Amino acid sequence: MAEQVLKVAIISFTDNGLEIAKTLQNEFYRSKVFTTREVEETKDIKQIDSVKELMEASFQKYDAWLFIGALGICVRSIASVIEDKKTDPAVVNIDDQGKFAQSVLSGHIGKANELTAQISRILQATSVVSTSSDLQDLWSLDMLAEQYGWAQKCNTELNVIISLFVNRKPIALVLKVKDKGTEFLEKTCPDFVTIYYSLDAVVTEKHEALLYVGYELIQLDLPTLAFHPKCIALGSGCSKDIEPELFEKILCEELQKQQVAIESVMAIGSADIKAEEQAYLDIVAKLDIPLITYNGDELNSIDVANPSEVVKKKVGVYGVSEASSALIANESEWLVEKTKVNTDSGKKFTYAISLVSDFARKPSIAIVGAGSGDPDLLTLKGRAILEVADCILYAGSLVPEELTHMAKEGALVRNSASMTLEEQIDIIDDYYAQGKKIVRLHSGDPSIYGAVQEQMTIFDAKGYDYYIVPGISSFQAAAAYLKSEFTIPEVAQTIILTRGEGNTPTPEHENIADMAKLRATMCIFLSVGIAKKVQGELLEHYPPETPLAVLYRVSWKDEQVWTGKLTELTQIIKENKLTRTVLIVVGEAVGARKNRSWLYDDKWHHIFRKKEKLVK
Fold first, then answer.
1. Which residues does 53 contact at the CB level (< 8 Å), separation at least 6?
2. What angle do the packed helices 278-287 and 244-257 form, to 10 degrees?
């Protein structure tokens, strides 16, 4: 209930209480003060003789009643006029010293609990709320539907399920779809609630009640509270002038057969020629949803699952029900493909059902390049993906833990350094099945010694959707640190990214000695343990004085860099006891400042700098 529209009645019984009442009146502009004390009356302050008469005449006319005085007076005053918690106004009691504000009636639906917290802030009073779910910081089950715009169905008394819930009995929660409400439930799930993502997965004997968010009709003996978001697009075509009552009756029966709650239908779609079909107009009015119609070109833009040549000849499209449901849902698949229905009157109609794409639990796997180490060198796209990920697996020995600090609250963040590939895949499988966003965070750029090929092979075999986000490699960070361009005109026009042959063999045509013949800028990864061998192979073709850089964790906070000449490689590594996370760069381009590029020479002409413009 928004504060600006709240209609509030304030009752005081003492002089000090009257001052508190006036303070509260300033905070609730649609408020009126009633008092048993003598007072100069105004439009908004009234003196009363009988609280009982006031309650009988006006209790249901206000959204909230604030009693300032003893709690007993408050309780006796409202006892005879209370009707139903779904319709009764909020009642809050404040002592006449303003020390305590207590929620008395309609804590959830009437928003008395929220009002109590607001008043406690205004008066700097202690808030007293006795609602069990609030005290335990649990969900208010009777408020979730209103809060998130869901329809609600219960196969037993709602209070039965609320009682089980606040007493922390084992509860199953099925999240068939996703929206803001399900994200809230996932983030704040208490330890006695087990989350499932399909009804089939629920082990009913382990639970005393079921909470459900989705479009399915639930038929279980278990006490069940089902929430139905408007997430279903229903497409339909029909015979002209089909009987509205008959259409509604049979459509409801069909939805029951398909185990789809009619409360979840967000819109009905059809062809433009059906825009005035009374059966459609009546049912959308009853359900308070829109009728959305499309022209032939729009309907034919969808590759329907069951095209009909008959329909094409009659109305110029291959399908109405499937195409219109797909257009509304922005989805190319159907929960229920075109289904034909014959009515007793001889009239016919078809329908198809799609889940609106925004509600679909579509998982994703992003293989993200973490960059060279400095969190500021993570790409903007990589950062955005990390911030919304539900699960982050990062190579802890190669990726700074600081990068995971941008993960959202509640995300699973695990260091994969001690895991086998199979253990990592087990976690990914679990989150993929839940329709979650998964990030595999790799050092540098995933395309360079990223060990992603084996993962992608598994993803392909499982049919998982995944994508790669490039990152800044350590060789690029090295060039930045060294203030070097690794391609210098007439000196080095090739960069070789490679590693020496240690425990892991290299292809015989890619040994360092052979590549050294090019005398290109060579960036050597994963080879610090065989530095002596690498140095010998390089010296077969590079001059002994060739510039060299040895970079340890370049761009990390503890980075260290040594420069010298090729003959000093082994000495640098031995003296500094380097064992891993080292990049070796060798070549004339390291630190070079000679040889001007032709690109900006005044004798070099191209599409952006025409020759004639330079003639004086």
1. none
2. 60
SS (H, E, C) 395-459: CCCCCCHHHHHHCCCCCEEEEHHHCCHHHHHHHHHHHHHCCCEEEEEECECCCCCCCCHHHHHHH
CA end-to-end distance (rounded Å), the chain: 77
Does pTM top 0.85 for this prediction?
no
Residues pairing with 440 in the sheet? 367, 393
Q: Give the separation between CA 551 and CA 131, rounded to whole angstroms.
A: 61
Q: What tokens does 288 get?
A: 């308070």
359-391 residue pLDDT tens: 998 888 999 999 999 999 999 999 989 988 999
Detail the DSSP E strand segments found in 69-189: 90-94, 100-105, 126-128, 151-154, 171-175
For CA atoms 251, 257, 262, 268, the dihedral sign is: negative
Residue with tokens 């609030």: 134
Helical residues (DSSP H) of 231-295, grouped into ranges: 244-257, 278-287
State whether residue 611 is helix, strand or coil. Answer: helix
Q: Which domains does the chain have, with CATH numbers?
A: 8-128 (3.40.50.11220), 143-229 (3.40.1390), 232-359 (3.30.420.180), 365-472 (3.40.1010.10), 475-586 (3.30.950.10)
Contacts of 80 (CB under 8 A, 6+ apart): 52, 55, 56
Over residues 550-559, the pLDDT tens digits come to: 999 999 999 9
- CB of 335 within 8 A of CB of 264? no
